[in-house]
Amino acid sequence: MVKCIYNYLVSPDGDRTTSKKNINGSELLLNTELQNHNYVNRIGTIISTPIVEGLALEINDDVILHHNVFRRFRDVRGKEKNSKNYYKEDVYFVQPDQIYAYKRDTEWEAIDGFCFIKPIKETKMFSDSFERPLVGIVKYGNGDIKKGSLIGFKPGTEYEFIIEGQRLYRVPTNLITIEYEYQGDEEEYNPRWT
Q1: With the C-alpha atoms ordered 3, 60, 15, 166, is the resulting torsion angle positive or negative?
Q2: Cβ atoms 122, 130 nearer than 8 A
Q3: 58-84 confidence digits (pLDDT tens)
Q4: CB atoms within 10 A of CB 158
Q5: CA–CA distance, 57 with 70 (Å, rounded to integer)
Q6: What is each CA distance from 25 to 14, 15, 32, in whole angstroms?
Q7: Separation in Å, CA 103 to CA 29, 56, 77, 141, 173
């Protein structure tokens, strides 16, 4: 297998898109837009580590990646193209800063600098939102932020991921503004996504 100097080689976990669902033996197409990043697979498996090691990742670790790694797009002429990460069929170059979490055995672990947050239900009676803005419970933390902490973060810093059927926000740890004490009315708002 090829070894890169700085990049990991990653294979997508299944298809490179998440726009197809199998329901009762029939395939349902959820999205026909090539440009929509919400339907790009963001989970892959490491098949080769770089020569210059930056992260403590190993071959066969599952990883959560940036949405542009497996993405296809249309250029200015309308021609369909692979991302710049494309190497060959089902193999992609991935830079260390495009990896946000990894799973070695059974539990996901966030890469230093990031954590994944579960939203919590809004408790205000007259709010039109189902979840409390800018507040959540840490689902996957790292050394700086502990799992289970109730935290607040800056607006616009959350980025949505679906991991194991749960909607989570990836938030950079340096943009977490406060760790709250639990009040007892916090309830996760996390409808299952499949």
Answers
A1: negative
A2: yes
A3: 999 999 999 999 988 878 898 888 999
A4: 20
A5: 19
A6: 18, 17, 20
A7: 29, 12, 39, 12, 19
Q: Which residues pair with 117 in a beta bridge?
A: 138, 169
62, 106 in Cβ contact below 8 A?
no
Give this prediction's pTM. 0.84
C-alpha distances out from residue 116 to 80, 99, 172, Å:
32, 13, 9
Ranges of each domain in the chain? 8-103, 112-180
The one-letter code for the residue type at 144 is: D
pLDDT tens digits for range 86-131: 999 999 999 999 999 999 988 899 999 999 999 998 888 887 888 8
Q: Is 4:87 a contact under the CB 8 Å cutoff?
A: no
The answer regarding whether domain 112-180 maps to CATH 2.30.33.40 reads: yes
DSSP 182: P
DSSP state of 86: E
166: number of Cβ within 10 Å: 16
